[in-house]
């Protein structure tokens, strides 16, 4: 019974994260500190059912890059990227699962302009203002910096529109993998500063809602 209640709470928190703004989600976790732990346990249980975890592919990619590159992990969860690499990694999330997390709204991270070489969103483009996160990633990236995105495949209604929206935010597509049945991954390069006005068209992704088991 207790496990069923926690599963139900995980599904509720997950739905809130996808259907409200990051500011509202941050307030929820501030008012209910246990909520993030419940969400993280539920998310970890879901990960164990996947054929692969896309964060592992991102870690492998970065390992082939110089260790001097600075990373920003937007929505870092358990800080697996920071714990797996020698690079300096700024780990951002709405609540601290580990002591490396900087708690903040991903639409407003405490970094100066142009101080990051690689920005990562691994299954973390959640919330109704996800365009603000991508504008913020553009702000902290150096010109020519890399944006890595991995998301659940079923969230994409129109991949072409999504890539077009990223282009309008100052990013050029380098590579994409949309053949995987579970996850889509993208690599973009920052080629221009983003306008502060976000055109949400094309950036809207379906929420990833888990069924009752």
What does this molecule look like?
This protein is an alpha/beta fold and 213 residues long. The chain contains 7 helices and 7 strands, in the order H-H-H-H-E-H-E-E-E-H-E-H-E-E. The chain has a 7-stranded mixed β-sheet with strand order 3-2-1-4-5-7-6, with helices on both faces. The model has no long low-confidence stretch (mean pLDDT 92). It comes from Salvelinus namaycush. One of its GO terms (cellular component) is rDNA heterochromatin. It holds the Pfam family Methyltransf_8. This is Ribosomal RNA-processing protein 8. It is an enzyme of class 2 (transferase).
Attribute tags:
alpha/beta; seven-stranded mixed beta sheet; 7 helices; RRP8; repressor; SAM-dependent_MTases_sf; transferase
What composes the largest sheet? 7 strands, mixed
Order of helices and strands: HHHHEHEEEHEHEE
What is the CA–CA distance across the termini? Answer: 13 Å
In round numbers, the mean pLDDT is: 92
Physical arrangement of strands within the biggest beta sheet:
3-2-1-4-5-7-6
Low-pLDDT segments, ≥5 res: none
* Overall radius of gyration: 16 Å
Give the helix tally.
7
The percent of residues in helical segments reads: 25-40%
Q: Total number of β-strand segments?
A: 7
Strand content: 15-25%
Q: What best-fitting shape do the alpha-carbon axes yield?
A: globular
Class from helix and strand fractions: alpha/beta
